[in-house]
Amino acid sequence: MILYVFLFFVGLLLLYLGAEGLIQGASSIALQYGIRPVILGLTVVALGTSMPEYLVNVFALISGESPLAIGNIIGSNISNVALILGACAVVLPLAVTPEVLRREYPVMLGVMVLFYLCALDGVIGARDGVLMVVLLSGLAAYVFYDAHRTTRGTVLESMEGELDAADPDLSTLAKAVYVIGGMGGLTLGAHLMVDNALAISDVLNIDHVVIGLTVVAIGTSLPELAASMVGTLKQEVDMTVGNVIGSNLLNVLFVVGTLAIAEPITVDPETIRLHFPVMLGFCALLVPLTWWDQKITRVEGAFMVIAFLGFMVFLYV
Question: Locate the Sodium/calcium exchanger membrane region domain: which residues (predicted)?
Answer without folding.
Answer: 4-141, 176-316
